Amino acid sequence: MSEPNIEEAVKEKYGAAAKQVAEGKTACCGGGASLSGCDPITRNLYGDEEKASLPAEAVAASLGCGNPAALAKLQAGEVVLDLGSGGGIDVLLSAKRVGPTGKAYGLDMTDEMLALARENQRKGGVENVEFLKGTIENIPLPDNIVDVIISNCVINLSGDKDRVLREAFRVLKPGGRLAVSDVVLRGEVPAEIRKSMELWVGCIAGALQETDYIQKLDSAGFEAIEVEPTRVYQVEEAREFLEAAGFDAEKVGPMVKDKFMSAFLRASKPVQQACDCPPGCHGLPCCN
């Protein structure tokens, strides 16, 4: 599938999910009101206290695989950017964590999700938030403006992950950090089984091998890269989905055991960028 087709498919799926919430239903990225395909992934990510502090619609529209706003250890006064912010749950939680001296941006390309997120912001009375329309491959912010980038099971949906990570690096301040939840693959899986498991895990997932994710972060310029598994998906959870797709779950089990997982990925932008200043040069900013 080409990149433009991936983008259109993601728009369609997540636009439909936003409409479900607007109709008073709980969102499911599979397109139905039930959570048969998504519930094993999205349940129990947020504490009761977190959910109680937000509009019900923000919770209902959550389609992530982690809780990056909590895991990122945000500090008061920081500027945060959520890539693929959806209904806004992680943006609103981040805004509360960074407080009135900080700010939280949400970036999404789906009009329906942006409308839902802005309505959730209004209902929540949260002022230090701004939702932006755009793609995560072309972040509409200037260089070196963000302290922390979070994302919740969205980077795996991009057809150009290298560009996403380069853009994230660009907008981060020197010393800034990336703290994202995403779907990661450990080990090889037969292509047809991988495709079905990816659909179960993330609707239209393009999960990277853990080693590939680390390599891409390194190539983008990040350092101090860490991958922390937060949930390993078991074949029993996906049994109904796999059998409906024509697989024998008993045979598939050993092939996928401990290989698909939600993970929290940390990395940072170096404080000092390397430069090619000649010996003894102290006049240029990068030489000081």
Radius of gyration: 19 Å
Enumerate the spans where pLDDT stays under 50 for 5 or more consecutive residues. 30-39
List the helices and strands in order: HHHHHEHEHEEHEHEHEHHE
Q: What name goes with the CATH superfamily?
A: Vaccinia Virus protein VP39
| N-C termini distance | 47 Å
Number of helices: 12
Counting DSSP E segments of at least 2 residues, the number of strands comes to 8
CATH topology description? Rossmann fold
The top level CATH class name: Alpha Beta
Count of spatially separate domains: 1
Measured by DSSP, the beta-strand proportion falls in 15-25%
| Main sheet: strands, sense, barrel | 8 strands, mixed
| Structural class estimated from helices and strands | alpha/beta
Oligomer: single chain
| CATH A-level architecture | 3-Layer(aba) Sandwich
Can you give a write-up of this model?
- This protein has 288 residues and is α/β, with parallel strands linked by helices.
- It has a single domain, classed as Rossmann fold, CATH 3.40.50.150.
- Helix content is 38%, strand content 20%.
- The chain is built from 12 helices and 8 strands.
- Helix 1 packs across helix 7 (111-124) and helix 8 (161-171) packs across helix 10.
- The model is unreliable at 30-39 (pLDDT under 50).
